[in-house]
Amino acid sequence: MAVDQPGWWQCGLVYQIYPRSFQDTNDDGVGDLPGITQRLGYLHWLGVDAIWISPIFPSPMADFGYDVADYCDIDPLFGTLEDFDRLTSAAHARDIKVIVDYVPNHTSDQHPWFIDARSTRQSEHRDWYLWSDANPPNNWISVFGGSAWQWDTATNQAYYHAYLREQPDLNWRNPAVQQAMLDVLRFWFDRGVDGVRIDALRQLVKDRDLRDNPPNPAWQPGQDPYASLTPLYTTDQPEVLEHVAQFREVSDGYPERVLIGELWLPIERLVAYYGVDGRGLHLPFNFHLILAQWQARQIARLVEQYEVALPAGGWPNWVLGNHDRPRIASRVGVAQARVAAMLLLTLRGTPTLYQGDELGLENVPIPDALIQDPVERNVPGLGLGRDPERTPMQWDATNNGGFCSTEAQPWLPLAADHALRNVATQREDPRSMLTLYRRLIALRRAMPALSVGSYRTLHADEHVFAFTRESGGQRVHVALNLSDQPRMTRLPGGELLLSTHLDRERGSTAETIELRADEGVIVG
Ligand code: GLC
Question: Which of 41, 223, 401, 500 sits CB 3.0–4.6 Å from 418 for a disulfide?
Answer without folding.
Answer: 401
